Amino acid sequence: MSTHSEPNPGHEPEKHEVDASAGYERTDANVTGIVVFITALAIFAAVTGLLCYGIGKVINAQLNKEDGPTTKWTKSVDVRQLGNMPSSPELQNKVAELTQTFPTPRLQTDDGNQDVADLHAREDLLLSNYTWVDQSKGTVRIPIERAMELIAQRGLPVAPPTQVQPPMTGDVRPTVTMPLTDGFARTSFEQEEAQEAAVRARQQSAEKQGTGSSQ
After folding, report:
1. Average pLDDT per consecutive 10 residues, the chain (215 residues; last block may be shorter)
2. CA 202, 204, 210, 213 torsion-angle sign
């Protein structure tokens, strides 16, 4: 069964027609509502300001109570009255001396490329030369190339075989693959320095050959 009500032909809905002949709105704004809104906003701003001021006074009073009475040691000084202090050459020399003799680790003046290059240079010296480990005991650190030759001749000590249980059903023994690198690589800074050194060496050799041919 339909529940829609049929319109009553004897009753016509009210029509609110707008007279647009004047070309503007004829009714005035609600001045009372605007005045009430502005008044409420002003009261809210005043109450908020007073509340913030009171909270600040309470916090400052609590801090002053914890700090104790003001003395000559706790008195705040306006440093702007001191002005710019003159520079002292002796103080500058002292600061320069301290910065030069300051113990490590020092503040890096660059991005650390030179420090890494120096570290690798020290490592190369240890890996490529004979150095004492303990001179009293006669222990010497040998170059890595010589160590590799000795290992190739004598071999490494073989550890006794360990008892390994057989894998369970469905398990697979892990296989260890050889790494593609030994874990050490030169930084881009060192590579660029090596390339520049090679270019300079080629230029010097070419200049020497040109001088020899001209003679």
Report:
1. 50 57 74 92 96 94 82 67 67 71 67 79 84 85 88 84 78 71 73 88 86 67
2. negative
Which helix (H) or strand (E) element contains residue 133?
strand 131-134
Q: Is residue 18 part of a domain?
A: no
Burial of 55-69, coded b for 16+ CB within 10 Å and e otherwise, reads: eeeeeeeeeeeeeee
pTM: 0.33
Q: Residue 173 to residues 88, 161, 210: CA-CA distances in angstroms?
A: 73, 17, 64
- Point out which residues pair with 140 in neighbouring strands: 132
- Name the domain boundary from 138, 155, 172: 155
H-helix or E-strand spanning residue 139: strand 139-141
- Alpha-carbon dihedral sign for residues 131, 132, 138, 141: negative
> Tokens 């006794």 appear where?
160
- The rounded distance, in Å, linking the Cα atoms of 130 and 141 is 6
Asked if the structure places residue 167 within a domain, the reply is no
